[in-house]
Automatic annotation (TrEMBL):
It holds the Pfam family TM1586_NiRdase. Keywords: Flavoprotein, FMN, Oxidoreductase. The keyword Transmembrane does not apply. This is Nitroreductase family protein. Residues 6-164, 195-250 form the Putative nitroreductase TM1586 domain. It comes from Peptostreptococcus stomatis DSM 17678. Its cofactor is FMN. The keyword S-adenosyl-L-methionine does not apply. One of its GO terms (molecular function) is oxidoreductase activity.
Length: 286
């Protein structure tokens, strides 16, 4: 897949045609999800597909923006073991599935929910695994260019989170990436010298809930440290999904331009001067 092109042409679609996704395409997407690179390959995560109309009616009031469900001809549900980093892994795998769907000509939209157990019960999923992602799939009903905008109170199913341009709505590289310690802004020239400019440029375009772009990076020699803006990261589903998505965007570009990326989650003892309202999520060796 041409990840750079897929990221650049990304859009979140909330209005779908009634046409179901081709069965062959769904089978290809299912196979891809099972075999694709994961953030943590030790976590068992499985795709489940559901037809649209009945699922839409069953989930109305349970999922979507303030219970207003996104109507689509098909839905992808990811279920996962409950282990450390399983939600970050869900964001990583879910967004990778979205990129693959886009490659197959399928539009998509993350759909949020507040009660994963209710989603699981409503869909009749008899498993000890946890629902970790709900994604609408189909074909957009109209060609609408989605820009980098989000209104307060929006979430994945409501926010405009396209990566189709790099306009002023996106934070700058200097705001997003630091060298050695917090506040020491990186420049494009420095990142280019370290062969990291591409990876950070595409990470900058990752979608996030409310378009908050909560991520910041510190380049420390051969290590890239990721921190997420959150006062209670451990209790935040959306922030963990966001973390997984940005780790994917950074990682897939490293995979195609330099080497196979690998994120680690061991505790880092070094003091980078990171503010108290940011949480170190992990690091990538480069």
């Amino acid at each position: 897949m041409d990840y750079k092109s897929l990221i650049m042409n990304g859009r979140s679609v909330r209005h779908f045609k009634e046409t179901p996704v081709d069965t062959k395409a769904l089978l290809e997407l299912e196979s891809y999800i099972k075999d694709c690179k994961k953030l943590d390959s030790s976590i068992v995560i499985e795709p489940k597909f559901f037809a649209g109309d009945d699922t839409y009616k069953r989930l109305y009031g349970i999922a979507g923006y303030q219970g207003v469900m996104i109507e689509a001809p098909n839905y992808l549900v990811l279920i996962s073991e409950d282990k450390p980093q399983h939600l970050e892994n869900a964001g990583y795998v879910g967004e990778r599935a979205i990129l693959k769907a886009r490659d197959l000509g399928i539009d998509s939209c993350w759909v949020s929910y507040s009660d994963r157990d209710m989603v699981k019960k409503t869909l009749g999923l008899e498993t000890d695994k946890e629902v970790v992602a709900l994604i609408a799939l189909g074909y957009g009903s109209k060609e609408v260019k989605v820009e980098h905008k989000a209104k307060t109170g929006d979430n994945y199913s409501k926010s405009n989170m396209s990566t189709a341009n790099t306009g002023s709505e996106r934070i700058s590289l200097e705001e997003m990436v630091y060298i050695d310690k917090w506040g020491n802004a990186a420049t494009s020239e420095i990142l280019e010298e370290r062969a990291l400019l591409d990876a950070f440029s595409y990470a900058r375009m990752a979608p996030s809930a409310l378009n908050k772009q909560p991520w910041r990076f510190i380049v420390d020699g051969g290590k890239v440290v990721l921190a997420i803006d959150s006062e209670d990261y451990r209790g935040s589903y959306l922030n963990k999904i966001d973390a997984g998505i940005v780790m994917l965007y950074f990682g897939v570009i490293l995979d195609v331009t330099m080497f196979d990326s690998k994120w680690g989650f061991d505790n880092l003892d070094k003091d980078y001067g990171i503010p108290a309202n940011y949480t170190v999520v992990g690091y990538c060796n480069i």
